[in-house]
Protein: Transcriptional regulator
Organism: Lujinxingia litoralis
Amino acid sequence: MKKQEPIHSVAELGARIREARQSQGLTQQEFADVCGVGVRFLSEVERGKESAEIGLVLRLLSRAGLDVMVLGRHHEQSRYWGESRYE
């Protein structure tokens, strides 16, 4: 599993969650039960669906043993609200 690398998209985030779940030997149903979310929601997150609720995503990350780190970026365009480098 990748560690200490930035996540630049919802798809990358979902892939990290899937990798962590699989490394624990859990099916989607087992992991969803442990996390207290539905298997459909977990499946959508792992596939990178962008409408997932952030609170539930954070719960999945926590139960997967993954930490969230917010890093500041010193990029010329990042000073403008509404602009995203991930679009």
Remarks:
- The radius of gyration is 14 Å.
- Residues 10-79 form a domain with the 434 Repressor (Amino-terminal Domain) fold (CATH 1.10.260.40).
- The chain has one domain: 10-79.
